Amino acid sequence: MGNMPSVFISHGGPNVVIEPSEAHDFLASLGKLVPRPKAIVIVSAHFETDGPVVVTDPNPAMIYDFGGFQQELYEKVYPAPGEPELAMRVANLLADSGLSPRTTAERGYDHGAWNPLILAYPDADIPVVQLSIDPRRDAAYHYALGAALAPLREEGILLLGSGHITHNLRAIFASIRHGSTPDPELSGKIEAFTGWFAEQFGKGDREAILDWRNRAPFIAENHPTDEHLMPLFFAYGAAGEGAEAELAHHSRQYGFFAWDSWFFL
């Protein structure tokens, strides 16, 4: 893979960092699967604002936005620097596209950001700029965020969307609590949903993809709320018109929790 792709990853809970799984292995290999970036612009599903906000913080701290996990996860530190100059370029590109960004001088890395980065780039020596999602806005809005930043890929900057291809936490917690075997009906609905996206990406049907809420099957079972899918549309938009999609990773946890991740070129 010679050109810098844009990337969507399913980031999982923070325990993916320390527990063995296929998803852990994929995230740990990510830094070898794409060219080494000069910097990373990341959109995490856990950074929610009204309209786009770009972080100019030169030294982001850690945000432990979770509860009930192993103590060592609350001691993890990812000391990658921010890059205020790049952050202002991001803001200017968004403004040039009519997206009215704001900046914030201080914000740490939530687990949607540091989960994948601590595995993919453990040396923490690549600058990171964070950009928010807006859960009140649709796929087309997040696609436009990515499209506005697409020129950065030509400079070796990785545009990374960090969310989840499915995100039915109620079903996951119920499965964990009761130790139940995977519900084959639910598993089928997850497979139908992820398969629908794979089919549309294969066809390059951008109209259908951006209209996912009206066209994809089993929305409620896969995304009771939308925020974890929005980084997918950012990464898709960042590859530009006519983007080709490559399924970079496909695994399941608890029989139905999907970890699909995508490269876009």
Automatic annotation (TrEMBL):
InterPro entries: Extradiol_dOase_DODA, Xdiol_dOase_suB
The UniProt record lists the keyword Oxidoreductase: yes
Keyword line: Dioxygenase, Metal-binding, Oxidoreductase, Zinc
Domain of life: Bacteria
Pfam families: LigB (PF02900)
Keyword match Coiled coil: no
Ranges of residues in domain Extradiol ring-cleavage dioxygenase class III enzyme subunit B: 35-258
Cofactor(s) for this UniProt protein: Zn(2+)
A single GO molecular function term of this UniProt record: ferrous iron binding
Transmembrane annotation, as ranges: none
Family: Belongs to the DODA-type extradiol aromatic ring-opening dioxygenase family.
Stated name of the protein: Dioxygenase
